[in-house]
Amino acid sequence: MHRRAVMGLGLAGAGLAVAAGAAAAGAEPAGALAVDGPGAERFAAAFEDIRAYAAQHMVAYGLPGLTLCAVAPGGTSAYLRFGYAELGGKVPLTPGHLFEIGSISKSFTALCVFHLMEAGKLSLDQDIATLLPGAPLPSGARITVQNLLNHSSGLPDDAPLFPRGGDGRLWRGFEPGSHWSYSNLGFLMLGTIVERLEGKPLAEVIRLRILTPLGMNATKGSILTGDRAAYAQGYSALYGDRGYPVAGPLGPGPWTEVTQGAGCVASTSHDMSLYCRWLIAAGQGKGAPILSDAGAARFTRATIDAPGWAARGAPQYANGLAVVEVGGRKLLHHTGGMLAYNSALHVDPQAGVGAFASTNVGLVPYRPRDITAFACERLREVVEGGPKATPSAAPPKTPPVEAYLGHYVSQGGAGLTVAATGRGIMARLGEEAVAMEPYEEDAFIAIAPQAAARPLVFRRTDKTVVRAWWNGVEFVRAVADRPVAAFSPATPATLLALTGWYGCDDPWHGGFRVAAQGEALFVDDVTPLIRLSDGSWRAGEKDWSPERMRFDAPIDGRPMRAIASGVDHLRRPVP
Predict the structure, then answer these.
(1) pLDDT of 95-130, one tens digit each?
(2) Which CATH architecture does the domain made up of 402-483 adopt?
(3) Fewer CB within 10 Å, N- or C-terminus of the chain?
(4) Is 475 exposed, middle or buried (0-12, 13-18, 19+ CB in 10 A)?
C-alpha cells in the first residue's frame, strides 16, 4: 500500500510549528566534528567533505538535527552533530542523545536468530508454524525462518500478528520465495520466536547477545517511555494528512513505545560506530564476539534479489540487511523510518569503512542514505585511491515535467493550466495557482502543503499524458478548450459508497483517503485498489502485492470501517 497512506498522522494542534529549513528554524548547519583514533590527519580532508555534505542536507531538507558517525581502518572514527535536540528551546544536540534507528533494528533481531541457529535451537529452513504455535498463519506452502529474514514470505508489510477482518487469519500475496516484498510483520514474528526460545524479552536478548559483547552500553533494545528524556525530541510533518514537500513545515512528532523486532532499537552515533566496525568484520568473515566466522559470512550474504528496495543498480537482501551497489562496490545497507526519526547505515567491508546517520524527523520521505553512501565512497577513496567521490545532489534535480504541461478542461468547463517551474510545476485553476513538486510517478503535491491537501495526479494513455485528477475532478487535455479524449465513465454508486476518509488513532497507521477516478478506486489518489474474488481489495498494481483492504460495517450502504491489512480504520469527515 502507498506508504504515506498507512503512516500519516495529522499533527495540527500539536503545539509547535517549525519553519521549513534548518537555517530558518535557527539551527546551525555547520556541525561539530570530533575525531578519535590514530588516523585523524590521513582522513581529515575526507571527514571535512562528509561534514560539508551533511550540512548541505541540513539546509536542503530542513532537518532539525542530525547525528553521524564515520569509521575508517586503523580505529579512526569521526563523530558529527548538527542542529538541535529540541528546536523551541534551541537545546544543543549532544553525543549522549538517543535516536531511534528504525528498521536498522532488523539486523539486531536477525543476529539474535542467527545466535539461536548456532546454538542448535532452530534452523533457517524451519517452518515457522513449528516455532509460533497458535499463530493464524496462511494455509498452503510453508513459510521458513529464512523467508522472514529476507522478506520473501509473501506476508503483508504492517499487518498485526492477529489481524482484523476476513476469517481472522493471515494471508500472503505470493508463494514463499517467489518474490521480495518488505514485511515488518515478518520481523515481528522473528522477535516473538526469539523471545519464546530464549525465555526473555527481545530487548534483553539483544543486550546479552549484541550490545554487551560490542560495548554498546548506551544503546537500548526497546523504546520505552521511561527513557524518553534521553532522546532528542522527534519531529514529524505538521500536515500529516497529505504529501510532505521537501523541507516542509514540521511539528513535534508522536511518541510510542516499540518493543517489536522490526524497529525497537535506539542508539547514539558512538555506539553505532562500534556496530559499523562489527559489520565490517562480519562482511570479511569474522564473527567474534557475536557469531562464528561461518555464521557471520552467512549473515551478510545476499539471499534474494530485492527490486523493491530504494537503491540504484540491482539491490539484494541478506538477513535484516540490504546489499546495494555504491560506486561499483556491493555494500551492506539499511535505512530506518520511525514516527519522528529517520536513519541510514552503509558499510563497505572490503575497504573497511562505514557510516551511520540519524535525524530527529520522521513520517516524511527522507532518509540520510545519500550521506552515509557518500561517506563510504569518500573514505574508500582515501583507503584505496581512485577518482574523487561525488555526492548526490541535495535535494535531487527535478525530473523533466514537459509531459504534463499544457491546458486541461473538466466536464463542467473548468480549465486547468500546467506550466513548468524550477522546482516542478505551477497548476492554475481559475484564479488559484499552486506551486507543486514531484511526489510519486505522475503525481505532484503542493510545495506549501496548506495550499492543497490532495495530489495532482496525471494519467497516461499509450504513455502519453491525457488526463489529470485533482480534488476528485477529472481534467482532460484540451486544444482550444476542446478535450482530445473522452471523459471517464461515471463512478458506479457501489464504488462511490466506498470513497471517503478513514482514520486510525494509532499513529503507525494514521489515515488515508479512498478516492474514485471513473470506474476505479485509489488510495490517496495514487495507489490503485483492485477488487479480488473473496471480496477484499488488493492495494497496488502488482498482482502479487500482499496488501489488502476490506470494507464493512455499512450504514445506508456506506461502510463505516475500512480494514487496511488487518487494522481498523473508521470513516471520518473528509479533511
Answers:
(1) 999 999 999 999 999 999 999 999 999 999 999 999
(2) Beta Barrel (2.40)
(3) C
(4) buried
